[in-house]
Amino acid sequence: MKRYRIASFAVDGRAVGLAPARRIRRARTSVTSAFALAGFLMGVFTARIPALVDKLAISTVQLGTMLFVWGLAGVATMQMLRYVMARVGSATVLRIAAPVYAGVVGLVASAPTYGLALTAVAAFGLAFGAVEVSAKSQGSEVERRYGRPVMNGMHAGWPVGAGVGGLAAALCAHLGVSYTWCLGGAALAALPLAFGLGGSLLAVAPVAVGARVGRRARVAPVVYLFGLLACAALVLEGAVTDWSGVLLHGTVGSSHAVAALAYPVFQAGMLTGRLGSDRLRVALGTRRLVMAAGLATAVGLLVATAVPRSLAVLVGVYVAGVGISPLLPLTVSMAGAGDRERGDAAIAQLSVIGYGGLLAGPAVIAALADAAGLRVALASVALLSASTIIAAARFLPTAKPASPKRADGNRSRQQSTTGGRPRTPSARRRSVAVDLSG
Fold first, then answer.
1. Which residues pair with 20 in a beta bridge?
2. Is 205 exposed, middle or buried (0-12, 13-18, 19+ CB in 10 A)?
3. What's the rounded Cα separation, in Å, for the pair 278 and 101?
4. Contact residues for 166 (Cβ-Cβ < 8 A; gap 6+)
5. Distances from the Cα of 82 to the Cαs of 12, 132, 182, 382, 396, in angstroms?
6. CB atoms < 10 A from the CB of 408, how many?
7. Which sign does the torsion angle of CA 419, 422, 427, 432 carry?
8. d(CA 238, CA 334)
9. CA-wise closest residue to 235 among 386, 128, 395
10. How far, in Å, CA of 413 to CA of 297, rounded?
């Protein structure tokens, strides 16, 4: 006999009744795998950037231009998809984007000149943006059907994939595997997973009328507050990812091998934090968790920049990873807590604002480092971003999420909270919206 769970969401204003618990759990696994896929290929690409520089003999300015083009392409895709997903749904976008994302990594690997590499990296950014925003929207749909916080757990796939990708790239470098074969091999390894994601995703009926798409794609003003939080979080994440290895080798004087540990240590911290953040959100509420995350991240980065010892820097990087880990999934969860169409538009807009931090952050840190040194630059960005996070958290809802429930539900518990009567669909939708946003 199948066990069912009440699905608390709406399609075109109509409540959807029951959804099989097994299907929801499979969709949760698929979304987690999508984040792992994105993280794995990004980890390989990031870790082999020095090899790309050597292969194409490009300057620092050319590399900066390439990374900026990648980020700009990703942001452009995220902005466009707020309207596309309102028509076709996040599942359709993710089914197409995931294999394309894996395929274009092969184009980056095989590009023989800087111009072709720039074009391939732009395509890589476009595909990355599509995978990111569609996976987040699909994750929001899964969380709505669960009726409790699960977003951080799904986002834990990213640090797992990124850590594995970074270690695989480091092993390739140690064994003397060329840049082309390393990235090409990663693309081939990722393709089966990319094609296998689609079967378990949750399909929701798209909006049929074009005029309605435009109206429902408008986002509430509070989404821009969530975007500010995401932007500050990604500035901090980019600061650690891009500059912690440089801090270790160039400032502290660590070897290349020790400096290379910064990225996987940071991803290990993110994984640790995301595995426990959903439960902490239930216990503390969103506002307190966001404040604690901002404070922990600032403490970690300040330790890393204040103590000129390799071990202290790595410990600080780990603490910063634990601290920053819940922020981006929390903003996605809050933005997508409403109905599906508005949720998709909100998540896409949130991604545009948030990933703007990845575009602006490196330029700000580079300018500050040139003027006052890398330690001062990282410490200043840590304090400013953490202060922004803590200040913005004061305007978040204060309600705590509901206590965790199994994905197959508990009918007697639901009835006990309503005097023995099953709750109406509208009551279920209201309770989930409050729980997931607060």
1. 4
2. exposed
3. 29
4. 43, 44, 46, 47, 263, 264, 267
5. 17, 12, 34, 31, 23
6. 15
7. positive
8. 22
9. 386
10. 38
The model carries a pTM of: 0.70
Residue whose entry in the numeric block shows the structure tokens 């066990």: 3
- The count of other CB atoms within 10 Å of the CB of residue 94 is 27
| Cβ atoms within 10 Å of 266's Cβ, excluding its own | 30
| Alpha-helical runs (H) found in 197-285 | 210-216, 222-246, 256-260, 262-284
Would you state the structure tokens that stand for residue 229, as one six-digit string?
């939080």
Q: Do the beta carbons of residue 9 and residue 205 sit within 8 Å?
A: no
What the block records as the tokens of 340 is 């599906």
Neighbouring-strand partners of residue 14: 11
Could you read off the pLDDT tens digit of each residue along the chain, which spans 438 residues? 333 333 333 333 333 333 467 888 888 888 999 999 999 998 888 878 778 878 888 876 687 778 788 888 888 888 788 778 878 888 889 999 999 999 999 999 999 999 999 999 999 999 998 998 888 888 888 888 887 778 888 888 888 998 898 888 888 877 888 889 999 999 999 999 899 887 778 776 554 444 444 444 566 778 888 888 988 988 888 888 877 877 887 778 877 667 767 878 898 999 898 888 888 888 888 889 999 999 999 999 999 998 888 899 999 999 999 999 999 888 888 877 654 556 667 777 787 888 777 777 777 887 788 788 888 988 998 899 999 999 998 888 654 444 444 444 444 444 434 444 444 333 343 333 333 444
9 by DSSP, 3-state: which?
A: coil
**Pick from 65, 82, 137, 72: which is nearest to 358 by CA?**
72
What's the CA gap between 374 and 248, in Å, rounded?
Answer: 11
- Strand 10-11 and strand 18-20: the pairing is unpaired
pLDDT confidence of residue 37? 93
Given the structure tokens 């399609």, which residue do they identify?
11
Radius of gyration of the chain (CA): 21
Burial class of residue 36, CB neighbours in 10 A (0-12, 13-18, 19+): buried
**Helix, strand or coil, per DSSP, at residue 46:** helix
What 62-65 contacts at long range (C-beta under 8 Å, 24+ apart), as own/partner pairs, is 62/114, 64/362, 65/118
* Longest CA–CA separation in the chain, Å: 72
Name all domains of the chain by residue range, CATH numbers in brackets.
21-198+215-437 (1.20.1250.20)
Q: What span, in angstroms and rounded, lies between the C-alpha atoms of 367 and 67?
A: 17
Among all chains, which residue has been given the structure tokens 């089914």? Answer: 95
The single-letter code of the amino acid at 282 is: V
145 closest CA partner among 334, 4, 275: 4
